Amino acid sequence: MGTLDAIDRKLLAELQAEGRVTNVDLASRVGLTAPPCLRRVRALEEEGVIRGYHADLDPSKLGYAITVFAMVSLRSQAEEDLRGFEEHMRGLPEVRECHMLNGEIDFILKIVSHDLQSFQEFLTSKLTPAPNVASVKTSLTIRTAKNEPGVPLG
């Protein structure tokens, strides 16, 4: 996509803050009428700038009382092995994020679990024995001071 203009950036900021805003309200907020607003949003979606829309759920209210970050080192960093690990992580619903890193640790994972016992079971039965895993170091989240999705647009 070409360079985003000020209106596109306003559209993105509004949608990032409130994905359920109606097209009419969105248009009003950014100074457009509804038809060109909708065209711009559709173009941003088609270009992949807007990847999707979702609800922000409270994990604790759904029984996921703990969040854990796991630092995973692999035995091999060959591209095929990296892709194999990533594919395996996509199949584990408890793994909410999986990021490849540079440096000593190959991946950092964000994992949700109902409680410590269920996390321990996940760790020993699904993560540690996963193909190519050399070591796993975990840190339990005590408190979250900031959880801001998206990117700064202001």
Automatic annotation (TrEMBL):
**Which GO cellular component terms, listed alphabetically, does the Swiss-Prot or TrEMBL entry include?**
cytosol
| Keyword line | DNA-binding, Transcription, Transcription regulation
What domain of life does the UniProt record list for this protein's source? Answer: Bacteria
**Entries under PROSITE patterns matching the protein:** HTH_ASNC_1, HTH_ASNC_2
Could you tell me the Gene Ontology terms of the biological process aspect for this record? regulation of DNA-templated transcription; response to amino acid
Which molecular function terms from Gene Ontology are attached? sequence-specific DNA binding
InterPro entries per the UniProt record, alphabetical? ArsR-like_HTH (IPR011991), AsnC-type_HTH_dom (IPR000485), Dimeric_a/b-barrel (IPR011008), Tscrpt_reg_AsnC-like (IPR019888), Tscrpt_reg_AsnC/Lrp_C (IPR019887), Tscrpt_reg_HTH_AsnC-type_CS (IPR019885), WH-like_DNA-bd_sf (IPR036388), WH_DNA-bd_sf (IPR036390)
State the protein's name. Lrp/AsnC family transcriptional regulator
Species of provenance: Aurantiacibacter xanthus
